# Entry
Amino acid sequence: MTTQAKPSPRDRLLDAAARLAYLDGVGIGVEALCRTAGVSKRSMYQLFESKDELLAASLERLAPSFEARLLPGADDARSPRERILHVFEQVEAESASPAYRGCPYLAVQIELKDADHPASRVAHRIKQDLTAFFRTEAVRGGARDPELLARQLILVFDGVSARAGIRADDLAGLIAPTVAALLDAAGVA
Amino acid sequence: MTTQAKPSPRDRLLDAAARLAYLDGVGIGVEALCRTAGVSKRSMYQLFESKDELLAASLERLAPSFEARLLPGADDARSPRERILHVFEQVEAESASPAYRGCPYLAVQIELKDADHPASRVAHRIKQDLTAFFRTEAVRGGARDPELLARQLILVFDGVSARAGIRADDLAGLIAPTVAALLDAAGVA
# Structure
């Protein structure tokens, strides 16, 4: 058995910010953040310049697990079409959790309504990385217009995440035929 | 020339709630709402039980103009395919405005994170009406699975509104081929 080190105040703040922003929105107060993290406000402001910077850093910290949950392995032997569909199967599986509130990066950008906010910039970049994955697979799969297909796939990703997150659609039987229609139209077999 | 009556306190509150929630989010305070509307807090609470009820009523009040802007006329002679595409052409045109922040009903539901909030319930119902329009046209257009096509179209509607609203995509050249691929796959000529 290994002894687990208690997370540092910095990590506790990042965890609290990520969790509270996802469940309650970016309007969460500094008091609530510090209380949840068990860190004083004084310490928080020693670690982060502002709540905005804390929020941006918390989104940055989520990126590796976001990508690990969604993307297929780099050495995956499946076809580009199957690798693209894999992402959407993961979204469908995750959306079944009662705690699912859609894509955290889309929600933050919609809530902040300010593309220049530090957290919006982080969120935008991480979603651009996902779009780049789609584009790479679209090229590998011989899509007629890989850029268009990548834009269509991230649009479907945001649409399904948002609608499942607000409980407007349970996604059953929706994603596979939608993505398949776009892949077929793009010529990705 | 007709003399225009000054809007009532009730209408001024509804306008302020709709405008501020759209531009700044549902977290807007009662103080800011009342100041913008030029109405005292006391009067606000005589007219509305709570800020939540005011927000819900403001979304309800937006519905006729939301539908008038997006939907084709009932006596429109165009084909179901063209009538469906009309909705998306309107979204693309609206999204070019610097004030565009995406679909107000989607944003409110994402921000509230509570499907039982009175404003979420109103938003959900108004979007169901738009989904019903898509379903009706899908049936008229002979779609193989009208329910599936309607779910796909509202998914694309929410995806494009969200991505244009956060300035992640300017929609140029995106919507028409996406909707066309889904209509083609559904057999709607």
User: Anything to note?
Assistant: DSSP finds nine helices and no strands in chain A. Chain A has one domain: 52-186. Chain A touches chain B through 42 residues (CB under 8 Å). The first helix of chain A runs from residue 9 to 24.
